[in-house]
Amino acid sequence: MKTLTSKRRSYEKPKYCIRSRTLGRRLVLQQLIPTLQAEGHEVIAAQNSLDSLKGDVAAVHRALGRVSSPAILVGHSYGGTVITAAGMDERVAALVYICALAPDADETSQSLQEKFPRTDVFGHIEVADNRIWLKPSGIACFAGDLPEQEQKLVWARRACQTPILQPEA
């Protein structure tokens, strides 16, 4: 087994705690987790409520308690915001961002997104019940590189993309 060395300590193969945005979860995890496991890494995916950033960070901290330390946090999309906040935990050795947001202390996910042109997917969403719902017409914007049948499955499993998060006090 390989031993890695950091300024903090040396340790065996890192453990991974993966946080992915709900709609993208299946796409990211389906490819990433088996690859890491095949290389002998311990991997766990944090299940987040997406009701608040604080709650999502707490979910990552709970997941960290289920793997031996130190761990590498992996975030996709909004998951980058979550691992940025959760990454201060002493059990975390590194952060990995995969097409993810990485806000500074004075930024939010929304303020980062506002720096760039809106993507086509925003023309295919509906806001109801304090949630953002992806319309069937928008799945190609999100998962257009997948075969049609898999796009339909992704939409059916994750049409409720995320709640509208309120800023934390």
Lay out the secondary structure.
Layout: E1 3-5, E2 10-12, E3 15-20, H1 22-38, E4 43-45, H2 53-64, E5 71-77, H3 79-86, E6 92-100, H4 109-113, E7 125-128, E8 131-134, H5 139-143, H6 148-158, E9 160-163
Parallel strand pairs: 3-4, 3-5, 5-6
Antiparallel strand pairs: 1-2, 7-8, 8-9
Helix pairs in contact: 1-6, 2-3
Task: Describe the protein.
This protein is of the alpha/beta class and 169 residues long. The chain folds into two domains: 9-116, 3-Layer(aba) Sandwich (Rossmann fold), CATH 3.40.50; 117-164, no CATH class. 34% of the residues lie in helices and 25% in strands. The protein has six helices and nine strands, in the order βββαβαβαβαββααβ. It has helices at residues 22-38, 53-64, 79-86, 109-113, 139-143, 148-158, and strands at residues 3-5, 10-12, 15-20, 43-45, 71-77, 92-100, 125-128, 131-134, 160-163. A four-stranded parallel β-sheet has the order 4-3-5-6. The protein has a three-stranded antiparallel β-sheet with strand order 7-8-9. The chain has a two-stranded antiparallel sheet with strand order 1-2. Strand 3 (15-20), helix 1 and strand 4 (43-45) form a beta-alpha-beta unit. The longest helix has 17 residues, at 22-38. The termini are far apart. The model is unreliable at 1-8 (pLDDT under 50).
